[in-house]
Amino acid sequence: MYHFFAQHENIHDTYIEITGDDVRHLKNVLRMKPGDELLISSGSNTDYRCHISEISDLSVRAEIDGVDEQGRELESKVYLFQGLPKGDKMELIIQKMVELGAFCIVPVAMKRSVVKLDGKKCEAKVKRWNMIAESAAKQSKRSIIPEVADVCSFKEALAMAEKLDVKLLPYECADGMEKTRNIIRDIQPGQSIGIFIGPEGGYELEELSLAKSMGWEEITLGKRILRTETAGMMLMSVLMYKLES
Fold this sequence. Notes:
The protein is an alpha/beta fold. 34% of the residues lie in helices and 25% in strands.
């Protein structure tokens, strides 16, 4: 069943109106017709099973057949703070983290980040990253479209995460797996969680010191050194396993 998102103002008691670029995609790419079924999400953890009743050049009307108010989201909101990686790795990270259930992804410019983004280039990247997040949310039938935030500095990222309940910072020199297991075991459904992943070059010691002073817990992910594009996915998979209702 194809999956779409709709604005709250387009969701009515008995039907939902689809507008914008999705209309062209639905008509010309998917070639859907009246009577075809589809899944529509509100962006607030409510899903609607619908069938198409009308199609025009500007909009599609879908009649509501059923409502799932539990949605498909994890009970905890997980925020990924990702040190900017090289090349197109950020696109892969966003796609997979959205599929695994991350709530928000924050790109972070760190001292050892090779990539330097500014001005229009940065704006274009963030726009593309959000398109990738939306596509991944549709593919994985998420009830929301996770946001990819604007690129921020390391200190700005720590400030954004200040009120999170649990803050996890994977680091190759951290204590053994028993500490990691205990911290993850104690996470409760509903707690907000931050994951901080450094770039290819890792963290500067002063970055680690500052993060620890603001409540980030250094944890290990095992004896092997994981790439920056692997570490966040590995930890997100463990959290998904624990938090999935």
